[in-house]
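look at this one:
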Amino acid sequence: MKQTAVKSFFDSNIIVYCYSATEPDKQKKVFSIIDNCKFPFISSQVLHEFCNVAHKKFHADDINVNTALTEIERLFYIHLNCITTVREANDIKHKYKFSFYDSLIIAAALECNCKILYSEDLQHKQVIENSLTIINPFI
């Protein structure tokens, strides 16, 4: 399949489906999107949240989590959140009335110049700052 050259950002909830045994249809959909994305991005926050879910929900051991992190590192460009990301998230939270952690995902996506943010938690097709469109891949 042809890869899209658009930079796309993936929320934590979407990455979790890559490792979920209970949602095979969603897992297949996510892998298809990742495979067809030339510039897939996540942030350090996504890694933190993924590890938390892997340990608490999937009861994964440290070795399996580290294996998954290695796979994720090969698949994605990783944005390291810094103070400018946090400040931007605070502004987005105020402007759009999102939770702080959703705003932090959005701020990282904007800093990466992504055009698409794949998320199951935010409003489908909402446009942020006239440049980032939220897409729920399961709609």
About this structure: The first strand starts at residue 4 and ends at 10. The mean pLDDT is 96. The chain is about 50% helix and 20% strand. Residues 62-75 form the longest helix (14 residues).
